[in-house]
Amino acid sequence: MDNLIAIVSAAFYIAATSMIVPGLIQQTSIRIKPVFVTALVALFFHIWLLADLILHGSGQNLSILNVASLISFMIALSMSLAMLKTRTWLLLPVIYSFSALNILASAYLPGNFITHLDGRVGLVIHITFALIAYATLMIAALYALQLAWLDYKLKRRKAAAINTNLPPLMMVERQLFKVVMAGTGFLTLTLLSGFIFLDDIFAPGKAHKTILSFIAWVVFSILLWGHHKQGWRGRKVVWFTISGAIILTMAYFGNRLLQEFILS
């Protein structure tokens, strides 16, 4: 049953993508309503499967693929809602394709990392902040890549740069910094909740996560300072955002990837 749900969700993600790509390539109008409804169906089946995979049996199965699928769901949901107000068409095919791959992987390559969250309010708060922070800053990384691509096209006067389905460069930059600011705020809450609620954040096997998360926080904080105080823009902003996202990914998934797939 789980495999079927995953296939249905992936199929609707692909269908939504297929409605967007022609508009980007041929510069034709993209109909928001059909894309949005199709994406909502994909998201419905996605969260249905996640509930079954994560809440299966005793405890919560927070395997690396389940967590990655949950984060991709959060990103896809956020950006699907964003399409109602802003032109996110360039990012959505990437997000939906990644979500389709994630949900198929979590269904067909099951893993086990059982955590017992019942009665552990502090841990739940910490994990919630961590998931929101990571998803938000991954969206920031996508905005940074979009910013770099649009800048590249505009500098070379490419026709694709004036595609009406694409957002203006300055709008993307403003959105990028809003998302970075929100993500850095949630990352701050993640670190604070870790220090408050967890006793083993510097224990062997976990210290690297804390240290790398703090380094990522420093990178994003410097980026915000540089933008607001020094007027940083362009390539420097892109590199800082991508670097922070990579460091945070290493913090969140590096050790788990080693434990679940390499050493198992």
TrEMBL record:
Domain Cytochrome c assembly protein: 37-262
This protein's UniProt keywords: Membrane, Transmembrane, Transmembrane helix
Pfam families, sorted: Cytochrom_C_asm
InterPro entries assigned: Cyt_c_assembly, YpjD/HemX
Annotated TM spans: 6-25, 32-51, 63-82, 89-109, 121-150, 176-198, 210-225, 237-254
GO MF, one example: heme binding
A Gene Ontology BP annotation from the UniProt entry: cytochrome complex assembly
Source organism superkingdom: Bacteria
GO CC list: plasma membrane
UniProt protein name: Chromosome partitioning protein ParB
Source organism of the structure: Vibrio albus
